């Protein structure tokens, strides 16, 4: 009773906790929606205010290409605001200097809507058609108005074409600039062209303030200088000067008397951007200084004072601007620290999400592996008794169901009958053929039809053995699937750990390397440090190369070796197509050891196709694999089996799978490839290039030999070839190699050459000792030649020998130091 009460309290507490968590999640969702609603309202107000000013904006008091272009863009990007956009555009046009401007704008918006609806009816609507539709709308509305008012002339036709072309260009520009205010993606990064389009949009909006004054201050001048201050602080001199040129040009088009503003704003923006490192006050001082200097040359005393006060008002607005606004603007401008940080944060979030997904998949595969193993473990103890019981029931049902002594045998003497049946089943199981003479005398006296029971028992036993065979197949398959799922889970877990590794900003180390290389007179375009982990260094350098000099291996790699304190080698070199004379070079850690290989082989009877396959490849994880496989028989079929075994094994090892599991997977694949009896030997040596420790996996293969000076050591194992048994035992043999060691691996065609009457191991050791060559290829050729000569030129089987020599890595060029350059401090990797 007490136990039930405790469980009830636990359940209630759990339900309360879950309800609290659910309520808190709902509150978070509601708060997020409220925040999004507030932000959306702010952008809506800003867009409608921009529509009001663009409706009022004009060029030379005659052309008004802004309104309909903005209306068309809003139709595609914010259609829910289309009605209010049209209202605010019309309201702004009422305050323009042209009395007929409102009628023209309303007509243009109406014609654009009619054209768009017609296009949509034919299912041809697309945002890319917007500029052409705006051009058509403006041209024909203006042309029709001139024809109606009988003011048509070549001049009016030309101005109509100019206004239509300007509308088309502005539509293109607004399509790239307006998404800044409509899209809410946090990782939205602008291109340089999109930044220019944004500046043109803001300058066009400021054109709507032409004619507005506060005392002696002109609003468009104050806003243009305020805009320059913002972009100069964010993007420096290039962006500040660009904003000055664009805003000055557009304002001068709206008011021809303000043509001097273009040069004044451009110079002020450049000077303000040059002082961006001093933060706001320095940028403000630069703008004041630049505008004041040009005002002295371009105007009288009254203009100078008016320009100065306008600059002061812009500076006041600039100093009152919240820092969050400037940081938000900086995130959109490419090349700024805020933009780089935003992109880095986004990449880190994507990386974390990806790592989490990979970990989840890893856990799924691990759970599946556990479930398969649990099924096989749980059913194994009960299976034997159940199957024996089913066997006895089947025999009794077929032989005793219609017998008149059934009641006496199974009801009155059940245990005795069952024991005799079990003993008889044992006899059937032990003997290949059983006759009436082999039946127990007690069973003959008890049973009235022993021959019939014997025949049924033999028949059922064959069925039972067949069932046993397939159940064993299923059980082995489950075990294999469980192990493979476990291996995949481990690979994915390792991948998740690699993804989680924190990327680091290595600007100081990059500048240190750049300064050291430039002091040597090299022209370095860019340096990108990918990793500085010891033993896994990756540095990408783009430099201007000189043909034939090979500065990468002779100068840069030795210098990096001295700076980093480990041997650095050239991993890859690629000439850039677009930049003549530049090359991208990837430098990486050189391994402590290097492997040189040689292969020699011959097919049976001198044929072209051998049944042996070999592979020598660097796996990419600091290990070098030397593999050899001998397929059953000779010719194309044997070649297919051996090459399949090596190819699958190579892919599995490169993916990071455990060696034993990789061999078992190859074994299962070879068994499933064909129902015929096929197999292949596998002989693999995994050489660690950092410490020369070598792991041998020998499945049915001949011994390998290690030659160290004048001594020869055999490496053996006693495993059957893959593809014969469902379950194989993989024995791994690890041997530490040394500098100068020669590893010899061979197939049975060479090892069995002396015949059965000779001690093959001693014979092969003597042959290897007598070869004086240290070069792997020469060593392999000499060994193969001596074996062929031993048989007087006859080749009785496929012969293949692979020789690998392990040497300490010796850089081609010695390291050297540059005065004043210290070793790089490696950052700690955060996992």
TrEMBL record:
<feature type="transmembrane region" description="Helical">
    <location>
        <begin position="226"/>
        <end position="251"/>
    </location>
</feature>
<dbReference type="InterPro" id="IPR045768">
    <property type="entry name" value="SpoIIE_N"/>
</dbReference>
<keyword id="KW-0812">Transmembrane</keyword>
<dbReference type="Pfam" id="PF07228">
    <property type="entry name" value="SpoIIE"/>
</dbReference>
<feature type="transmembrane region" description="Helical">
    <location>
        <begin position="311"/>
        <end position="330"/>
    </location>
</feature>
<dbReference type="InterPro" id="IPR014221">
    <property type="entry name" value="SpoII_E"/>
</dbReference>
<dbReference type="GO" id="GO:0004722">
    <property type="term" value="F:protein serine/threonine phosphatase activity"/>
</dbReference>
<dbReference type="InterPro" id="IPR001932">
    <property type="entry name" value="PPM-type_phosphatase-like_dom"/>
</dbReference>
<keyword id="KW-0378">Hydrolase</keyword>
<protein>
    <submittedName>
        <fullName>Stage II sporulation protein E</fullName>
        <ecNumber>3.1.3.16</ecNumber>
    </submittedName>
</protein>
<dbReference type="InterPro" id="IPR052016">
    <property type="entry name" value="Bact_Sigma-Reg"/>
</dbReference>
<feature type="domain" description="PPM-type phosphatase">
    <location>
        <begin position="596"/>
        <end position="806"/>
    </location>
</feature>
<feature type="transmembrane region" description="Helical">
    <location>
        <begin position="281"/>
        <end position="299"/>
    </location>
</feature>
<feature type="transmembrane region" description="Helical">
    <location>
        <begin position="43"/>
        <end position="76"/>
    </location>
</feature>
<dbReference type="Pfam" id="PF19732">
    <property type="entry name" value="SpoIIE_N"/>
</dbReference>
<feature type="transmembrane region" description="Helical">
    <location>
        <begin position="258"/>
        <end position="275"/>
    </location>
</feature>
<keyword id="KW-1133">Transmembrane helix</keyword>
<feature type="transmembrane region" description="Helical">
    <location>
        <begin position="195"/>
        <end position="214"/>
    </location>
</feature>
<feature type="transmembrane region" description="Helical">
    <location>
        <begin position="164"/>
        <end position="183"/>
    </location>
</feature>
<feature type="transmembrane region" description="Helical">
    <location>
        <begin position="127"/>
        <end position="144"/>
    </location>
</feature>
<dbReference type="InterPro" id="IPR036457">
    <property type="entry name" value="PPM-type-like_dom_sf"/>
</dbReference>
<keyword id="KW-0472">Membrane</keyword>
<feature type="transmembrane region" description="Helical">
    <location>
        <begin position="82"/>
        <end position="115"/>
    </location>
</feature>
């Amino acid at each position: 009773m007490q136990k039930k009460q405790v469980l009830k309290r636990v359940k209630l507490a759990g339900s309360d906790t879950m309800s609290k968590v659910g309520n808190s999640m709902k509150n978070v969702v509601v708060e997020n929606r409220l925040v999004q609603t507030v932000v959306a309202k702010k952008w809506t107000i800003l867009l409608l205010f921009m529509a009001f000013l663009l409706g009022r904006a004009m060029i030379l008091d005659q052309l008004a290409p802004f309104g309909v272009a903005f209306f068309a863009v809003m139709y595609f990007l914010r259609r829910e605001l289309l009605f209010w956009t049209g209202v605010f555009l019309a309201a702004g046009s009422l305050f323009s200097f042209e009395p007929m401007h409102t009628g023209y704008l309303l007509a243009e918006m109406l014609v654009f809507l009619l054209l768009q609806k017609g296009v949509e009816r034919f299912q041809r609507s697309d945002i890319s058609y917007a500029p052409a539709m705006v051009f058509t709308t403006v041209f024909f509305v203006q042309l029709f108005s001139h024809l109606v008012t009988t003011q048509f002339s070549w001049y009016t036709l030309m101005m109509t074409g100019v206004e239509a072309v300007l509308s088309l260009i502005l539509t293109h520009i607004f399509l790239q600039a307006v998404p800044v205010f409509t899209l809410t993606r946090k990782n939205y990064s602008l291109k340089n062209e999109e930044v220019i389009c944004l500046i043109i949009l803001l300058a066009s909006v400021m054109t709507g303030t032409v004619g507005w004054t506060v005392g002696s201050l002109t609003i468009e001048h104050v806003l243009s200088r305020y805009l320059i201050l913002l972009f100069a602080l964010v993007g420096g001199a290039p962006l500040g000067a660009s904003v000055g040129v664009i805003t000055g040009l557009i304002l001068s088009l709206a008011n021809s008397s303000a043509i001097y503003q273009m040069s004044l704003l451009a110079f002020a923006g450049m000077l303000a951007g040059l002082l961006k490192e001093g933060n706001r006050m320095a940028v403000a001082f630069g703008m004041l200084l630049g505008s004041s200097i040009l005002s002295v040359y371009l105007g009288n005393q009254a203009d100078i004072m008016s320009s100065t006060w306008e600059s002061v008002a812009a500076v006041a607005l600039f100093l009152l601007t919240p820092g969050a606004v400037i940081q938000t603007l900086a995130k959109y401008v490419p090349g700024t620290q805020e933009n780089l940080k935003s992109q880095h944060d986004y990449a880190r979030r994507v990386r974390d999400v990806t790592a989490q997904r990979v970990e989840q998949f890893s856990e799924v595969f691990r759970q599946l592996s556990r479930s398969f193993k649990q099924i096989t473990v749980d059913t194994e103890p009960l299976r034997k008794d159940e199957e024996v019981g089913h066997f006895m029931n089947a025999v009794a049902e077929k032989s005793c169901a219609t017998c008149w002594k059934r009641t006496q045998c199974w009801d009155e003497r059940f245990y005795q009958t069952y024991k005799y049946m079990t003993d008889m089943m044992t006899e059937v199981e032990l003997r290949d053929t059983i006759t009436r003479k082999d039946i127990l005398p007690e069973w003959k006296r008890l049973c009235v039809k022993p021959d019939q029971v014997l025949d049924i028992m033999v028949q059922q036993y064959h069925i039972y053995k067949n069932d046993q065979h397939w159940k064993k197949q299923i059980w082995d398959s489950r075990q294999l699937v469980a192990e493979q799922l476990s291996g995949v889970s481990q690979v994915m877990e390792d991948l998740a750990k690699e993804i989680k590794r924190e990327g680091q900003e290595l600007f100081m180390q990059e500048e240190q390397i750049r300064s050291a290389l430039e002091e040597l007179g090299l022209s370095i375009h860019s340096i990108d440090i990918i990793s500085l982990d010891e033993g896994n260094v990756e540095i990408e350098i783009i430099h201007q190369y000189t043909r034939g000099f090979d500065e990468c291996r002779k100068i840069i790699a030795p210098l990096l070796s001295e700076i980093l304190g480990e041997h650095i080698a050239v991993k890859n070199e690629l000439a850039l197509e677009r930049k003549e004379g530049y090359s991208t070079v990837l430098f990486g850690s050189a391994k402590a050891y290097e492997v040189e290989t040689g292969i020699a082989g011959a097919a049976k009877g001198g044929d072209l196709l051998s049944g042996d396959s070999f592979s020598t490849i660097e796996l990419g994880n600091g290990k070098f694999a030397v593999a050899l496989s001998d397929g059953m028989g000779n010719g194309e079929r044997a070649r297919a089996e051996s090459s399949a075994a090596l190819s699958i094994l190579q892919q599995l090892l490169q993916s990071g799978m455990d060696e034993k599991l990789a061999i078992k997977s190859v074994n299962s694949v070879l068994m499933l490839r064909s129902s015929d009896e096929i197999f292949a030997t596998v002989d693999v040596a995994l050489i660690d290039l950092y410490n020369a420790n070598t792991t041998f996996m020998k499945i049915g293969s001949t011994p390998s030999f290690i030659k160290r000076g004048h001594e020869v050591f055999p490496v053996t194992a006693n495993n059957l070839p893959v593809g014969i048994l469902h379950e194989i035992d993989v024995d791994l043999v690890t041997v530490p190699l040394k500098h100068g060691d020669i590893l010899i691996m061979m197939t049975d065609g060479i090892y069995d050459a002396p015949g059965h009457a000779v001690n093959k191991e001693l014979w092969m050791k003597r042959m290897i000792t007598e070869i004086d060559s240290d070069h792997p290829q020469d060593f392999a050729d000499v060994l193969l030649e001596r074996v062929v000569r031993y048989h007087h030129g006859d080749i009785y089987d496929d012969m293949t020998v692979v020789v690998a020599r392990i040497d300490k890595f010796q850089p081609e060029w010695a390291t050297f130091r540059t005065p004043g350059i210290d070793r790089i401090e490696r950052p700690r990797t955060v996992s």
